[in-house]
Design a protein that fits this description.
Elements (H helix, E strand, L loop, with lengths): L4 H10 L26 E7 L4 H9 L4 E3 L2 E8 L2 E8 L4 E6 L15 E4 L1 E2 L2 E2 L1 E2 L1 H9 L21 E4 L8 E7 L4 E8 L2 E8 L3 E3 L3
Antiparallel strand pairs: 1-5, 1-6, 1-9, 2-5, 3-4, 7-8, 10-11, 10-14, 11-12, 12-13
């Protein structure tokens, strides 16, 4: 399943050395982040395919501070919705280091790592504001991001029931009734009825 397009836009913004505005998300302007007085900086590490966790583990063994943002999202598997946890930015993680005290050249030879993201010949520095923003928008309890999950359906969408007693019927989504339940207008026995259903029982109707 493809990641929400927002994640790709965010990753492009991270690499902008002259970053002044977070155009991918409107709420950036409300951030107030104290500038760090320490010499350590955040860098983006490009990993080998599906080896983000391997890279994270082996970089931590070298005493680097490493952060791998994770995304929880729902996917269809054998006819049912299941939750999966995957890297927010596939093949990327963040590393904090003081280039004056720590040898960054060892990063490239670390298991699971392809190399540091660079601008020219220099490692690209990720702005502190970006790291702070990503941490603030993660779930405070789990630390996971949920980009795109609540907006799977919106009012007025034509949906099809895929399980339960109304399986096969199509209707129109009227409104949300909580995080996981919605009210759907269905044609039942020659009349129209409002039925509360779980979002996991629905998919978008074609056409």
């Amino acid at each position: 399943m493809r990641r929400p397009k927002a994640t790709a836009r965010v990753m492009r913004v991270l690499m902008d050395r002259h970053f002044t505005r977070y155009t991918a998300l409107d709420s950036y302007e409300s951030l107030s982040v104290r500038e760090s007085t320490r010499m350590d900086r955040w860098y983006a590490v490009f990993t080998k395919p599906r080896q983000e966790h391997v890279a994270e583990e082996h970089l931590e063994r070298q005493a680097f501070t490493v952060w791998l943002p994770r995304l929880e999202h729902s996917v269809r598997h054998r006819g049912r919705w299941v939750d999966r946890i995957e890297p927010l930015f596939p093949r990327y993680l963040f590393l904090q280091a003081d280039a004056a005290d720590q040898d960054l050249s060892t990063i490239r030879s670390t298991r699971g790592v392809t190399g540091l993201v660079r601008q020219g010949i220099e490692p690209a520095v990720v702005p502190e504001q970006v790291i702070s923003f990503l941490r603030e928008t993660a779930d405070p309890e789990s630390g996971l991001h949920h980009i795109g999950s609540p907006a799977r359906f919106k009012r007025g969408d034509r949906v099809r029931v895929i399980e339960g007693p109304f399986e096969g019927l199509e209707g129109v989504l009227l409104k949300e009734k909580g995080e996981e339940r919605v009210l759907v207008l269905l044609a039942i026995l020659g009349g129209e009825r409002n039925v509360a259903l779980s979002t996991q029982q629905l998919m978008r109707a074609r056409g």
